[in-house]
Amino acid sequence: MNKLKFLVINGPNLNMLGIREPSIYGNFTYPMLCDFIQEKAETMKIETSFFQSNHEGDIIDKIHEAYQKFDGIVINPGAFTHYSYAILDALKAVAIPTAEVHISDVNEREEFRKISVVRPACCVTVSGRGYDGYIEAIAELAKKIIN
Ligand code: DQA
């Protein structure tokens, strides 16, 4: 079987990892996070591509471009999680199996973080597992795609 190809999307402020609230988001920089994910995904025979943007429209364009190019999307939409119906619609439009990931436990923080408007387009959600959450999401997503 061909290698699965996953697109890993990180939304606003995730380029600030390592600087941004380390007690919540840890000490990895964004490039360190990408290397970590790529290395672990490789051991699962999954090819990963990475995209980060602070702009909603750019994230939407990237999701559209993924149509028929990727087998899965792993997305940490950052704060867009809580209000971007446009990202929800983009994910529904391409209908690529998608995992939602949050480094922090969004259910244990402010009220507004408990709401995810993108969740209805996702078949996997991982929250509060730190950087390992991306790996868990990739593994779960691959299992769903293969089975
Ligand atoms: C986040 C949680 C969001 O509420 C927040 O806006 C982020 C990061 C996380 O990874 O824990 O930017 O998605």
pLDDT averaged residue by residue: 97
Poorly predicted tracts of residues: none
The gross shape turns out to be: globular
Share in helix: 25-40%
The fraction of residues assigned to DSSP E strands is 15-25%
Hetero groups in this structure are: 1,3,4-trihydroxy-5-OXO-cyclohexanecarboxylic acid
- Main pleated-sheet profile: 5 strands, parallel
Rg over CA atoms, rounded to whole Å, is: 14 Å
Structural class: alpha/beta
The main sheet orders its strands as 2-1-3-4-5
Order of helices and strands: EHHEHEHEEH
State the end-to-end distance.
13 Å
Count of helical regions: 5
In terms of quaternary structure, the protein is single chain
- Total DSSP E strands: 5
Short description:
The protein has 5 helices and 5 strands. With 147 residues, it is α/β, with parallel strands linked by helices. The chain has a 5-stranded parallel sheet, with helices on both faces.
Structure in words:
- The structure is a single chain.
- The protein has 147 residues and is of the alpha/beta class.
- It contains 5 helices and 5 strands; from the N terminus they run βααβαβαββα.
- The protein has helices spanning 22-25, 30-43, 56-65, 85-94, 132-146, and strands spanning 4-10, 46-52, 72-76, 98-102, 124-127.
- It has a 5-stranded parallel beta sheet with strand order 2-1-3-4-5, with helices on both faces.
- The relative contact order is 0.20.
- The model has no long low-confidence stretch (mean pLDDT 97).
- 1,3,4-trihydroxy-5-OXO-cyclohexanecarboxylic acid (DQA) binds next to loops.
- The site of 1,3,4-trihydroxy-5-OXO-cyclohexanecarboxylic acid has 10 residues, from loops.
